[in-house]
Structure formats: structure tokens, C-alpha cells
Specification:
mainly alpha; Sufe protein. Chain: A; 6 helices
Amino acid sequence: MKKKETYINLNKQVEKLRNSDDPKRKYEYILWLGKKLEIPNNNILIPENKVKGCVSEVFVNATFKEGKLYWEGYSDALITKGLLAFLINGLNELTPKEVLNINTKFIEETGLKSSLTPSRSNGFLNILLKMQSQANNYLDK
């Protein structure tokens, strides 16, 4: 990742997970984030916002205001909703370029692999890739 201060919210969450050696506590933190995720506007539940490659239903949408992206999302599974909330919290209010420049290495740094099934771990990456794809749509605006 580039400048640390650019990704302050993402880094805080990664640190929180990195500082716990207990996979169960990491999992519980992700579930807690999922419970806190705001219910999105139903109009985001459209095929263009659907994350492909996830076992559960996942939708994410970016709104572009004053040069920054604001995210909302939905998932029908609590753990996936938590992973989505993790990314929404971490990527909210970043510019499209900042979202596109994120190094996916932060996913490994969370240590979540030991807490998630391979399909959930893959879903986490797919959500990020969908968010980056949407950010790319706003790159020159």
C-alpha cells in the first residue's frame, strides 16, 4: 500500500485482526462488523452490483461524491456481510485511484485465512475486486 495515512481505516481494521492470535476472536469480530452494517437501499440489489464467485448473495455499490467513493452493500450470510462491512469501512471515502492502488496483501495480513473456509476467503477477494472494478468506472471523473 502507498501512504499509510491514506488507508487509515483499512489499516486500523487489519491491525485489530493482526493483534489477535485467536482465530475464533477474529471470526467474532467479522460477525460483529456484519451485524453493524447498515441496511442498504434496495435499489442496489441489481445484477450490475452482484459480486460473482461468492457462495452467498453479495451486492456492493459505490456512490461518487466530491472525488470520493461511498459504499453500501448487502449479503444474505452474516459472515460474508462482515467481510463486506470490513471492506466498506476500510475503503469508504477513498478516491477511485486509492481504491485501485490497494495491495491485496492486506488480506493475508489479517490472518483470516485460518478462520475462514477457502470459499469465504475467495469471496473476500471477489468483493474487493468488484469494488475495484466499480472504482475504475469513476477514475476519470
